Amino acid sequence: MIKLVAATGFLFALIPSVSAHRYFFGLTEISANKNTQAIEIVHQYTLHDVQQVLKKRLGKTFRLGEQGSEQHIRDWITEKFQLVNLQGNKVEPNWVGFEADYQKIWVYQEIPKRDNLCGWDVSNTLLMDSFSAQVNTINVVDDHGNRSLILTIKNTSDTITCQQEIKE
Questions:
Q1: Considering only CA atoms, which of 98, 94, 87 is closest in space to residue 112?
Q2: Distances, alpha carbon 123 to alpha carbons 3, 10, 66, 151, in Å
């Protein structure tokens, strides 16, 4: 009997917790593609969190693959993730698409004409209206180096800075 209880406890320990977790984070990478001259944007989030937020937003259960689900994701991303260039103009990335597995969702966008990202403002409030502990990290990779912006509910936007050349 003790072996049965121990084995059952061990099996439950192996089952990943999908419905509850303690950390709320998202990752966005903004990178300059030297081959296509485009700026590529990839957002990565926990699928369960995205589904929960879209359920709340739509007032009904949200499932990937249902009619209109991609448009709902697109509208949500467009509203919550924004870029503003040096001239103060909002830059709307083109929608490329998304993919998901049982844990994560990846959303792809791009800006076809490669511009210098230095001085651009970025705002990312994805999931912050539902999870006050949400942290959105934005990694920027381009000709001016690699750097990260950390956004929270207290700091939902920041400016992309560029590294200065080191003079010898």
A1: 94
A2: 54, 43, 29, 8
Q: What is the pLDDT of residue 55?
A: 96
53 phi and psi angles, rounded to 5 deg = -65, -40
The radius of gyration of the chain from alpha carbons, rounded to an integer in Å, stands at 19
Task: Tell me the helices (H) and strands (E) count for the chain, helix number first.
Answer: 3, 10
Residue 122 token pair = 């970025």
Residue stretches of the chain with pLDDT short of 50: 3-19, 166-168
Neighbour tally for 97: CB within 10 Å: 11
pLDDT score of 164: 63
**Whole-angstrom distance, CA of residue 33 vs CA of residue 157:** 24
- What is the helix (H) or strand (E) element at residue 106, kind and residue range? strand 104-111
For CA atoms 58, 63, 67, 70, the dihedral sign is: positive
Task: Report the alpha-carbon distance of residue 5 to residue 13 in Å, rounded.
Answer: 12
Tokens for 104? Answer: 């994560």
pLDDT tens per residue across span 94-142: 999 999 999 999 999 999 987 789 999 999 999 999 999 999 999 999 9
pTM above 0.90, yes or no: no
